[in-house]
Amino acid sequence: MHTFEQLTELFGNYFSAQQLPTLPKNLYDPCRYFLQLGGKRIRPVFCLMGNELFGEIHEDAYKVGTAIELFHNFTLIHDDIMDEADLRRGKPTVHTKYGNTAALLSGDVMMIKAYQYLENIQTEYLKNILHLFNKTAVEVCEGQQLDMDYAQDNRIDLYDYIKMIELKTSVLLAASLEMGAIIGGASEGSSKHLYAFGKNLGIAFQIQDDYLDAFGDAAKFGKEIGGDIKQNKKTALLIRALEVATDAQKLKLNDAMNNNADNKVETVIQLFRECGVPEWAKALKEEYLNKAMYHLEEVAVQSSRKKHLKDIAAFLIQRDY
Amino acid sequence: MHTFEQLTELFGNYFSAQQLPTLPKNLYDPCRYFLQLGGKRIRPVFCLMGNELFGEIHEDAYKVGTAIELFHNFTLIHDDIMDEADLRRGKPTVHTKYGNTAALLSGDVMMIKAYQYLENIQTEYLKNILHLFNKTAVEVCEGQQLDMDYAQDNRIDLYDYIKMIELKTSVLLAASLEMGAIIGGASEGSSKHLYAFGKNLGIAFQIQDDYLDAFGDAAKFGKEIGGDIKQNKKTALLIRALEVATDAQKLKLNDAMNNNADNKVETVIQLFRECGVPEWAKALKEEYLNKAMYHLEEVAVQSSRKKHLKDIAAFLIQRDY
């Protein structure tokens, strides 16, 4: 069996050998530009890991992984248009470099290209894979819509927020693992447990991401602290703080959010601390991580085969901060 | 066997009974709005006709027809954003009514919904249908890109133009017929001839559309005369005129196009006439119609079964003007 790093390299080799057409240039150049910006390829590697949990990696797992990665990149290109984001992975987004029209149509064709990778997998699994792929793709769109809706809605609670991140990011991680499992010949029960592992791991990861924005070590985190706070982003932390704050704390929090003073980030972090938000967030993350690990235990293969998945879960969800 | 009109009604009943989810409202309301604007549903009806040419209509033809119609509507929603079109079927376009972001994401989800209709067809045909659907969908995107590229390129010739309309509109008509034929159990040879019938018919139809813009009877045509001319649209007529015009005529033509005088439409139409464009366009249309009819003849079923397809071809490509 292979480690996450080994599979990342194997998938990277396969993926970079795939060719997009050359013409029309204005359609495919933006696709090529975006794909070569890189990315961690976590989703396709999860697909390979899901397959290998149950047996030798079949070529179909590479095809499905490619479909997943193309789909994921399509959503990023279109999300960047919707969010009017200028940079992605430190480079100009597609619409910034090529214009909105090019980004729109290049995203569209990338999504169809994703489906082209599915058409050649073994007939035996085609229907199941296509079903899960479609269901997940719809959910990702719904998650993106909820994310945009929630930005303008002050009544959302933690339940709404978790549902949104589940759709927007977790289900694709979960489905990547399950599609690999299907190709590996897993039983339906084991496939569903693996899906639940991925879904809960994804939620734990997002909660961690919210936590690190306020309480992370900037050097380790690799991002500036307080980016979400500056934008008044409705993270798990902010939702929790507004839920448990006293009236006086609520007043201070809203005041800090509205006034954008120089010490905004420090003020909000201080209020988070007063409201017990960091401890709460750590406990919530643990809760989802525990759920994830429970479902991994339930997958019916020898424990030794699960080692690499446990390792990557531990790597993604760090406990040492 | 059923006439085109009967199948339009049958498909309309099936299609309107399909339900989109209610939530998220901001995602699905724009989809519902656009689908209820109507449209002739030619493509799904072609799919039913392609099936019935070879046998009883199978429920799968309705599913595939729905996938085709959803895909077609997805392209219209996104094309309208790209073309900054305010109206479609006399009503506000999706982006005009709901904004660009909503139109973008609603189009995306509509396309995935299209693929959901494919996942439940008989396994036996799934791979072939998915292959043709994907190939065609990519071509439609490429056609849209070429259409936008050509608007800014003065060197395109008739060959480029025909290739563009083939991709942008004809291949989907052709594939609709062929997918129906596949479901009907047609041989590969007959399927390909039916595809070629649809492709050439689509090109003939587009050339007729260009012709009618300048030389049609406004009352019969249902559109204002000269819409393409006002926009300096590169139609088959304009490309031909610029190809055969004398230097003096070319000067007049370019002058009329650049100056947008009150009599622009009349001036350009007069120049088209001087260059023999109307006779040429009619002959070109006939040429593609004849190709289409040749391929229909080659489909290996009794001639009597082809009657309704001949009727609809005659209806779409009128000769009495």
UniProtKB/TrEMBL annotation, chains A, B:
Report the GO molecular function annotations. Answer: metal ion binding; prenyltransferase activity
Any Pfam family hit: polyprenyl_synt
Question: What UniProt keywords apply to this chain's record, in alphabetical order?
Answer: Magnesium, Metal-binding, Transferase
Q: Which Gene3D superfamilies match?
A: Farnesyl Diphosphate Synthase
Q: Which GO terms describe its biological process?
A: isoprenoid biosynthetic process
Cofactors required? Mg(2+)
**Listed PROSITE patterns:** POLYPRENYL_SYNTHASE_1, POLYPRENYL_SYNTHASE_2
What family classification does the UniProt entry report for this protein? Belongs to the FPP/GGPP synthase family.
Question: Would you tell me the protein name for this molecule?
Answer: Geranylgeranyl diphosphate synthase type II
